[in-house]
Amino acid sequence: MKNTKYIFITGGVCSGLGKGIASASIGAILKSAGFSVFTSKLDPYLNIDPGTMSPYQHGEVFVTDDGTETDLDLGHYERFIDINLSKLSNLTTGRVYDKVLKGERSGAYLGKTIQIVPHITNEIKDYIRHAAEETKADFLLIEIGGTVGDMEGEPFLEALRQFHHEMGDENVMFVHLTLLPYLSASRELKTKPTQMSVRELHRRGIQPDIILARSDLKIGQDELDKIAMFADVDPKAVIPALTVASIYEVPILFEKNSHISDIIFDKLKLPKKKVNLSEWESLIKKIKTAKKKLPIALVGKYNENIDAYISIVEALKSACYHNGAKLNLIWIHSGKLEKGDKKELAKLKKAAGIVVPGGFGSRGVEGKIIAAKYAREHKKPYLGLCLGMQVATIEFARHVLGTEEVDSTEFNIKTPNPVIHILPGHHKDEDKGGTLRLGAYPCVLDKKSLSFKAYGALKISERHRHRYEFNMAYREQLEQAGMVFAGLSPDKKLVEIIELKDHPYFVASQFHPEFKSRPLRPHPLFLDFIKATLK
């Protein structure tokens, strides 16, 4: 295509409706029609990025190949559209203001009064144009975080209004996802909140072209027609967005039931192209026909917000589907496990396999070590991710080498045996934002390892997000005791993957393989981990 087409996705009534899933699903549909697609999210919060935000409040921090710490919705984009995103895929209010204010201090504005309009809105529009120019995508899908009417989102909506005016109606369209609440007393779905949400957009000079109506219940034609009339939208463009058993059904429902691609092609003056969703249909068939329920323990420390582990959960689900199984996820709180909670230990014993994910800080670490010890001693398949690799190393050094005085300097700066220590060139008191080992790094695998068998390649690249590393001073000792260093950095100075001899499946990586897993292409380590639990 000669020019990039822009689709902006907004949300109304309340947050948490699934704008990220909707955006990703539209992207998957357009890619299935043969178009190149790039996605981005505009986040109205004042943080520079989500890197230092609490997992309890914000959920997972998703990391791209180039090391950008981003919103978890980018994980949905990558999984659905099967593309690798970048720093061009996430912009926060904090980043916008930071750049504008630095420009003001350096004299870039030549003494002008700096205002929301035009300086902040111009910066947002420049970002959108730059993303289009750099990616050269046929479609640029941009989700606006939060809800229409939020004070912090106003500059973004104004920037989008201006952008639409400048680029022309045939190049820009708006999709609005909104809620239809159900009142059990009167037994009816209410369209009034959607009407009011669209009016909020109208007040900002934005006319939605598609309304995605979120509901847990089937929406009648009368309700759809009513929304179309009050929102001034073509009745065919009011699309039910119903709650489904699997989020991977959404692209199929949008296309098969509502022909959303035709609406997009008509609006943007494009010739219609056939959409091929056969791979997604095949996946849904696998999901619906899977018989065996596989109990997998996830030993986390942020379990109060399950979004903190969303990429891991989706990677496990995908690996199960492709092995003919359904995931029965057992949530185990490492903080309770380390306090001797018998119920948590009983849950651990019921699991066919154990996953220990990443995290920061000492709370709950001893519980993760207990889980690693149980997996090692009872020959349970174990998959350690980032901190999960570090606790497995600590546990092995403590109990196989026979000394309790082993730890990471993250948890005990004075430990006499720091098998895990801080990255060279860093110290524990420095600024937290952007000082981790972030993004994709190469790794060379041992040809005799389980990891090599899984990947089927000698050299791989995986994404990182951590500040501490394996201490190579302990390599020989641990190797002699039965630890296998299955993956190393090309210069052999950093450990990327450990395995254990005489164990059916004990693999732990310093990196985060979950970030590169896809529903149509499960990650090799997750795929083989699930295979091991099924034996």
- Helix fraction, binned, reads 25-40%
Share in β-strands: 15-25%
- Biggest sheet, spatial arrangement of strands: 13-12-14-15-23-22-21-18-19
Mean pLDDT reading: 94
End-to-end distance: 49 Å
The number of helical elements comes to 19
Low-pLDDT parts are none
Number of strands: 23
Inertia-based shape: globular
- Helix/strand/pairing category: alpha/beta
Rg estimate, integer Å = 25 Å
Please give the largest β-sheet.
Answer: 9 strands, mixed
Task: Give a description of the structure.
It is a single chain. With 535 residues, the chain is α/β, with parallel strands linked by helices. 38% of the residues lie in helices and 22% in strands. It is built from 19 helices and 23 strands. The strands form 5 sheets. Strands 13-12-14-15-23-22-21-18-19 form a 9-stranded mixed beta sheet, sandwiched between helices. A 7-stranded parallel beta sheet has the order 5-2-6-1-7-10-11, with helices on both faces. Strand 22 (495-500) and strand 23 (506-509) form a beta hairpin. The longest helix has 20 residues, at 116-135. The model has no long low-confidence stretch (mean pLDDT 94).
